[in-house]
Design goal:
The complex is a heterodimer of chains A (about 240) and B (about 350).
Chain A: H1 10-41, E1 52-61, E2 67-70, E3 75-79, H2 87-90, E4 97-107, E5 110-120, E6 130-144, H3 145-151, H4 161-170, E7 174-182, E8 185-191, E9 209-219, E10 222-233
Parallel strand pairs in A: 3-5, 8-10
Antiparallel strand pairs in A: 1-2, 1-4, 2-3, 4-5, 6-7, 6-9, 7-8, 9-10
Chain B: H1 10-35, H2 48-76, H3 81-85, H4 87-109, H5 117-123, H6 137-152, H7 156-162, H8 164-171, H9 173-187, H10 189-192, H11 197-217, E1 226-227, E2 230-235, E3 244-247, E4 255-260, E5 263-268, E6 282-284, E7 287-289, E8 296-298, E9 314-315, E10 317-320, E11 323-326, E12 340-341
Antiparallel strand pairs in B: 1-2, 2-11, 3-4, 4-5, 5-9, 5-12, 6-7, 7-8, 10-11
Helix pairs in contact in B: 1-2, 1-4, 2-4, 2-9, 2-11, 4-6, 6-9, 7-8
Classes of the chains: A alpha+beta (about 240), B alpha+beta (about 350).
Chain lengths: ~240, ~350
């Protein structure tokens, strides 16, 4: 006869122990094994770290997103702390010579400064070299610039979409990661067609493979992709 | 005389159950956060936030799988009944584990911005028109809300306040929460997973839950044949001593018929406590005893023995040509119906 368990009965509790003990042990073992296996194969999006600190001086360009072009012609994107940009601080210094200090993020030869201090420097700002590269139709992924330039690794795909949008809403410069190199790089700084920040509609296309039209311009040693978000489609 | 141990002997059983559940959670989190990292590939050392998010998220999913498997397992094999006895405790623990996962996600993905993290949780992704890129966080919010609601209403006070029928209907939301968690994982973590293991685990768990429910549902009684105004419940000999059978009328609730000391009695199949399946219970100490939590009722009037006050609807029975017949019209709860003597 099948034993009948009654929770409040001490007798039936003991009877149940015989059947359930090996099941509980198996369940504990199964949970432990699954924890181990799932932890070992987990993908790590990165710990939000920078590679160090950096002090730079150069000419500030406020649009489409703040950047500094050094006297050597190296273009460094600027962002604020956390998930915020520094548009408000950069705007009054547009075209002026500035000095800045902050955290240093880097992927490949592309640098970003997470600005702790930004102020005008002595001397005149120099207009950076600009080279229009014409109209392009590019395929790639719009990513949060801070994550893709080294703070995370690289912080893409839909699981990070909301996080990337939080950065975008906060003003962190977006970066277009092209599927194949364009003018020598896969990492393109982004902006809207009017050289302003990308419109809010870009959020629907964040962290997913898209094809879109736009124009390219080399500013210093960086390529800026002024994308027409209205043309964005799934390739 | 029925045992009133229901009042005084629950402590030990609950402590053992809770310690076992805590051990399950403890082992999982301990291995995930403290043992496995030493074995991760050198290029993939999981950061603290992601580790916490993954550990507690997957743990909550596995616990939900266990919780939803217990019901059909008990139906298929009553020896699993002890797992069901304090299932609500496991549910409350699962809500706490899920809260830790949600807190880690909020702390990492939605914080450090100039805006409130809860505002960012709702505004961060509004691409509802997309499948690839759909705001999977919403599925997580829904599932977590359900878990919190169920944990908050898990106490017997809410069971009495809402009535067992409403309470049980409310707690059936757990199935919607489970489906929502599967969607949360499928549209979120699985979209970026380089290794197929998580997908395999999620698929295996969901398939297990679905399969167990399909097998358990096949054990439900078929609708009984009507003989005039009575329902045919089958031969008398089909009911074992101190056991019950379940009869399903074309309309209305299922009826449980019990045999004890050469007599037959019929009550509703729904326990007054949590609507547990009384017909799968036994007669213990002369009382119908629910297989879920041991609630007891007298055979003749469906009343719980004093000091308890629960009452069940009773039914009239008769025996004709060796077959049991039951009047499908329920008597008001607690109505005395003299048990029918088996000739």
């Amino acid at each position: 006869m099948t034993p009948f368990f009654i929770g409040w009965s001490a007798r039936s509790g003991l009877r149940a122990l015989g059947f359930l003990s090996p099941i509980v042990v198996a369940l504990l073992t199964c949970f432990g094994a699954l924890a181990f296996a799932l932890a070992v194969v987990s993908d790590d999006p990165g710990g939000g770290d920078v590679i160090g600190e950096m002090r730079i001086e150069g000419t500030l360009i406020a649009d489409p997103y703040p950047m500094i072009v050094t006297d050597a012609g190296h273009t460094i994107l600027l962002s604020g702390g956390g998930k915020s940009g520094i548009q408000d601080e950069a705007r009054p210094l547009d075209g002026k010579r500035v000095k800045a200090f902050g955290g240093h993020a880097r992927r490949g030869d592309r640098d970003m400064l997470l600005v702790y201090e930004l102020s005008a420097a002595s001397g005149e700002g120099r207009a950076p070299t600009r080279e229009p590269l014409g109209s392009w139709r590019l395929t790639g992924e719009i990513c949060d610039g801070k994550c893709v330039l080294g703070v995370m690794r690289p912080g893409n795909k839909p699981v990070h979409k909301a996080c990337a949008n939080v950065c975008f809403i906060g003003g962190v410069p977006p970066v277009f990661v092209a599927t194949t190199p364009v003018a020598g790089t896969r990492y393109l700084l982004m902006g809207g067609p009017d050289n302003r920040a990308l419109p809010d509609a870009a959020r629907d296309h964040m962290a997913a493979l898209r094809r879109m039209d736009g124009t390219l311009e080399r500013i210093g040693d960086a390529i800026v992709f002024r994308a027409d978000i209205a043309t964005a489609v799934v390739p | 005389m029925p045992d009133i141990g229901r009042l005084r002997k629950r402590g030990n059983q609950e402590i053992v159950y809770d310690l076992t559940a805590l051990a399950l959670i403890g082992v999982y989190i301990w291995v995930f956060l403290w043992i496995a990292p030493a074995f991760q590939h050198v290029t993939r050392p999981l950061d603290a936030y992601s580790a916490r998010m993954n550990a507690f998220g997957t743990c909550a999913f596995l616990l939900l799988t266990v919780i939803l498997s217990i019901g059909p397992l008990v139906r298929l094999d009553p020896r699993f009944a002890p797992l069901l006895y304090n299932r609500r405790h496991l549910g409350v623990m699962t809500a706490a584990v899920a809260a830790t996962h949600a807190d880690a996600a909020l702390d990492w993905y939605f914080s450090f911005s100039p805006y409130d993290r809860f505002e960012m949780l709702l505004r961060g992704n509004t691409s509802f028109q997309q499948v690839h890129g759909f705001p999977f966080e919403l599925f997580g919010i829904f599932a977590f809300s359900v878990l919190v609601l169920l944990a908050a209403t898990s106490h017997d006070f809410w069971l009495r306040f809402l009535t067992p029928r409403v309470w049980k209907t409310l707690h059936m939301l757990l199935y919607a929460a489970y489906a929502s968690v599967v969607a949360h994982i499928a549209l979120g973590a699985l979209q970026a997973a380089a290794n197929p293991l998580l997908a395999i685990v999620v698929l295996a768990c969901a398939t297990t839950v679905a399969t167990l429910h399909i097998f358990a549902s096949r054990r439900r009684a078929e609708t009984a044949a009507i003989v005039g105004a009575w329902l045919d419940a089958g031969p008398v000999d089909a009911i074992a001593e101190d056991h019950g059978i379940v009869v399903t009328p074309p309309k209305g609730e299922a009826i449980a018929i019990f045999r004890h000391a050469g007599r037959l009695s019929a009550v509703t199949n729904l326990c007054a406590h949590q609507n547990g399946p009384l017909g799968e219970g036994r007669v213990v100490d002369g009382c119908i005893t629910c297989p879920w939590h041991g609630y007891q009722y007298r055979l003749e009037d469906g009343c719980a023995p004093p000091p308890f006050t629960e009452k069940l609807a009773t039914y009239r029975l008769r025996i004709a040509e060796g077959r049991v017949q039951v009047d499908p019209v329920a008597n008001p709860p607690g109505t005395l119906v003299e048990p029918v003597t088996i000739p």
